[in-house]
Amino acid sequence: xxxHRLLAILPAAVGVLALSAARAADLSIANTQAAGFDDTTxxxxxxxxxxxxxxxxALIVFQTAAAMWGASVRSAVPIIIDSQFNSAxxxxxxxxxxNSTVLAYTSPSGYVTGLTFPFPIPNAGYDFALANALSGxxxxxxxxxxxxxxxxxxxxxxxxxxxxxxxxLDSSIPAGQVSLFTTLLHEFGHGLGYSSLVNxxxxxxxxxxxxxxxxxxxxxxxxxxxxSDSAATRKELVTTPSALAFDGPAVRxxxxxxxxxxxxxxxxxxxxxxQLDFAKGEFSGPLVGSAPVVAAVPLDACSNLTxxxxxxxxxxxxxxxxxxAGVVCTFLSKAERAQDAGAAxxxxxxxxxxxxxxxxxxxxxxxxxxxxxxQDGLALQAEVAQGPVTATFAAGxxxxxxxxxxxxxxxxxPSSVSAGSSVIHWNANSYPRTLNxxxxxxxxxxxxxxxxxxxxxxxxxxxxxxxxxxxxxxLEPLVVPGTQSSYVVAIIxxxxxxxxxxxxxxxxxxxxxxxxTVSSPAGCSTGFPCTFGPMQAGDVVLVVTTLQVAAxxxxxxPVNVTLTPSSAGSSDSLTATTTQTVATxxxxxxxxxxPASVIPGSTATLVTTVTNxxxxxxxxxxxxxxxSSSASxxxxxxxxxxxxxxxxxxxxxxxxxxxxxSVNTVFSVAAGFASGASFTATVSSTTQDPNPANNSAxxxxxxxxxxxxxxxxxxxxVLGLLGLGFGLLLRRRRV
Length: 735
Fold this sequence. Notes:
Number of helices: 9
Strand order of the largest sheet: 15-14-21-17-18-19-20-16
Strand content: 25-35%
Distance between the termini: 24 Å
Number of strands: 41
Oligomer: single chain
């Protein structure tokens, strides 16, 4: 992984904002072409996602995740998130197999050091979102703070991995689907600072700097911060299980809220007792009992066991492995074959040196079924071959996923480097349930963000500690008189104790009324005010309401929400407002399409389309276009259709609501062209445009044969970004 740092040099007079005075963070989603938000494929509303097209539902999921994070952290500078659904055809990171794929990765747009501003740790690198919040200044110079890339092939014929995206806003995820919502909560955490500037393959800090996250990583064995370790030591720690932990006062204080001692698995061999880390299978019976351990024959249990007489009444040791084509060998099928042979339980060990995963499948068995690591499995297999080994499930004493002191949460350090996953995730197998920032989505994942806001607090964010709320306008940021506008309200209990009940009230502008309301969990369908409860520590309530906008609406359109808890908390943040401007003119939207790549020495035709989304007429419409490139021989172009000839800018005239115009631009690409370039189209009008965010669009030129990522998983150079480098933070899932 390689991350470059952008040192923002601004006048020394810029000061540091006191975070206690900062408002709730405004996270907004940049609606880019690549995001898939314009996909008009019909879709049935699911959970409280009211979108009726695939694109609408995807955008609503992004906006709801932004609402939850906006309720949790504070910043006076808006946080703009670039987003896109990518295909393996253009981004090799998303290559699928039947056994694994990458769901998403997040690329911070850049870092600022504390040497530039008086940040808490001078030598640390602060990602743009946090640096902006600390300084009260947009150090990203009007750009996005981070980019979230989603596997757009998932669920299509282009991806062999047997899963599809689930767009519901709840944790009742159907079998065979992956929650986009929980994935985004995770990815936004990376974008807000849960990231390292250390290359895990060699332990070297990129550009000689460490991130603020790195300054909170603790070397468990040596008892020192890993910032004081040498690069060689860091390289070793990255591949030493349970060697690194996150250390910070906010996380320490919340360990009893989210983690507890799990049932423990002990093995007894030649007078030595060893405790093994494990993940309980989704189909496991109660974790109780004690029995000898016998290796299954065949070891992978992909066919009926041939040593049933030996294995009856004992725990079967089984290798995970991956089955040959046409052979059904799921975790559940292995367990069922062992149970049919009379096994009292199963212990599956990983084929590869990766993290623990929860074995999925139903129905539940009557016997215990657990998954252990490759390292522990090979050691146990060797012991079983030498003499009698007994395994026992008993009450544990060590708090799950913490270092021996129980005060630091372990980070993910598998015995071989997992690109984009090692170090920058929690260790797997948390108890009593999965944490949001673990490296893979597990079946018991929930909507809340558990420790992640605590991490943000330790990194320097101002974080709401009590009950908190936010409200976000859904879909396009337009309020049109006489139509309907929808909003999501996110309520989060960030206290460490339960709240008996919480009442929510919502106030629309005068003459506008509530048309419909849905919530997850249910409880707010009959209008406002409505009451939920109890809310446990970390619980989330999502409410989606649709307002009927008055035909006479004009000017600004504020929507206010207020919480009234059954008991007051000094750290509560109980009110939130979102305000949009009522549309009067035409909302102009521009898109640019072209070939995926171009051949040097040829021509390429781009199509620029300007559409007036409404509600009114746009007059004096002007279209402009320009090429940016660092090459000495950038592409040249001419405009030859749609009322534009020769060169930009050109006057388009008047566009009524719902109409569009397309312009063809022919580019000549020099034979020696091997660099990147981008063409950016912009549109303007003399009438008010209620949503200028979609008034520009870009197309990036790349030559044939240039891939989106190198073989090592690093992103390709992105031109037109003033040298900002992207760090690759992958999120992998295996079954």
